[in-house]
Write a structure and sequence with these properties.
Two copies of one chain form a homodimer.
Chain A (H helix, E strand, L loop, with lengths): L5 E5 L5 H10 L5 E5 L11 H16 L5 E4 L2 H12 L6 E2 L2 H11 L4 E6 L1 H6 L1 H9 L4 E6 L3 H6 L6 H17 L3 E4 L8 H8 L4 E4 H15 L11 E5 L3 H12 L7 E3 L7
Parallel strand pairs in A: 1-2, 1-3, 2-9, 3-4, 5-6, 5-7, 7-8, 9-10
Helix pairs in contact in A: 1-10, 2-3, 4-6, 4-10, 8-9
Amino acid sequence: MSEQTIGVFDSGLGGLTAVRELIKILPGEDIVYFGDTARVPYGTRSRDTIRKFAMQDLRFLLDKNPKAVLVACGTISSVALSDLRAMTEIPVIGVVEPTARAACNATRNGKIGILGTSATVKSQSYQTAIGAIDPSIQLTAQACPLFVPLVENGYLDHPITELAVKEYIAPLQEAGVDTVILGCTHYPLLKPVLGRILGDHVTLIDSGKEAALALAAALKAQNQLSSAAEGQRRYYVSDEVGNFSHIAGMFLNQNIDGAVEKVSVKTDD
Amino acid sequence: MSEQTIGVFDSGLGGLTAVRELIKILPGEDIVYFGDTARVPYGTRSRDTIRKFAMQDLRFLLDKNPKAVLVACGTISSVALSDLRAMTEIPVIGVVEPTARAACNATRNGKIGILGTSATVKSQSYQTAIGAIDPSIQLTAQACPLFVPLVENGYLDHPITELAVKEYIAPLQEAGVDTVILGCTHYPLLKPVLGRILGDHVTLIDSGKEAALALAAALKAQNQLSSAAEGQRRYYVSDEVGNFSHIAGMFLNQNIDGAVEKVSVKTDD
C-alpha cells in the first residue's frame, strides 16, 4: 500500500457498506479496511469506551499511512469524531454531516426519521447536524440495539429481523416521516426488509454511501484522486478471518479470502 | 476483601445468575465479581480471542486474592478452562462438568438438549462431558447467537425473544428431549419465556446454579467456608457502571449501586 491509500474503519462488518460505495465511485483507489470484530458491537457501550476503542483503531490505520480516513461507523462518528481529528492532519470524514445533508435534501414533508445505535441516538449528533442545516425539520430518532447483532450474525432477512424492524420503525411511521436515515453502517444490510416494511414512499438514506461520496468530493477538491485503473484492497480484522471473509465476500460480491488478515490493535490500559 | 473472597467472572451480566445462587446457598461468603461489559459478548468470537480475554479477566480477579474462582460463563468454561487452571493453584470451577452431571441425573428418557453460544456448541464441551458420564445419552445442541444480545439489552420477555426461542428450541423439541441445559449463564434470565414455550414436562438445568453448588461443595470439602453471617459483595465492570448496576440490581433483587466500580483490565498486545 502506498501513501495513496484510503483508510476505512468500523466496529465490524458495517463499514463495508461504505467500502462497496467507494469501490463503485472510485475504483482506482487503494483501500485499507479495519473491522474491530473482536470487540463489536460499539453502539451499546459507553461514550468513554467507544472513544477509547476508536482512537486505538485509528492509530492502527494511521500506521498504514493513508491520505484520508473514512470513519464508516455511525456510533464512532457521533461520539468520537473530534477526538479522532485531533490525532492527525489528514482528512477524517465521518458519516453524520454528509448523511444529515442528504436527508435534508431528500425530505419533501420536512419529517425525517433516524435509526441508529443507542450511543448514536443518545449523542444527539443527527439532531445537532440537521438543526444546523434546517431547524424547521422535525426529527424522530429511534435506537435499534438489536440490529447490529442481527447483521453480524447473518440474520439479514429473517422473521426475527422483521419483527425487530416493525418495532423500531413504529414511532417513525407514527410521526409520518418520508425520509429515514440508516444512521449505522450495518443497517443497509437490512435494506430488503426495511424497504419492504417501510414502503416505497419512504426514502432510505444510506450513511455509508453518503460518507463515501463526501470523501470522494474531498479528495477531488484536493487533487488527490488516484489515476490507477483498479486499486488494491486490504482488509484487517481483530478476530478470526473466516467469518468476516465469508459475509464480507458475499456482501462485496467478490471473493476477498486472500486479502483479509487478523491483527491485534495496540491497547494501552 | 480478605483472602476469604470468592471470585466470579463472566463476559457481562450472565454470571450474576451464579452469584444469586451463591448468595442463596453461602450467604456468609465475600464475593468479588467481574463482568467484561466493554467486550461482551464472547460467545460469537473465536476460540483464541475468548482465551485471551478470559486470561486477562482472571488475572484481574487473581489480584484480589480469592480462595477460589467460579468461571460463571459457559463460553469461557467450554474453551478456556484448562488455560485458566494453569494460571493458579486455587480451585477454578467451570460450569460444564457440574451442569452435565445434573442433566444426566435429571433426564428420564435419555434425551438432553443443550442451548449455548456458538463457541460453546462448536467446542463440543457438553458432548465430551456427558459422553464421559453416560455415552448412551442422546444429545441435541443448538447455538443461540441472539440470546446474549437480547439479555444484555433487556429484552427478557418480549415478542422478539419469544420468536428467537421458538426458532432455537425447534430441533430440541423434534428430538424429544426431556431436559434442556441452559449452557450460557445469561439464559436463566430468559427462563419465563423458555419455560412457557418448552412446557412443564421439560426440566431446565441452570448452569450458573450447578456451578455455584459445585463450588460450595469444593469449599466445604476443603473446610474453607466462611463463618460470617453476611458476606460483602463487590462488582467490577469494564464499561459504564450505570447500565449494569440497574439490570444487576433488578436481577439480584437488591440495590447494588454503591458496590459497582468501573475498571480497566490489563491487556497485553
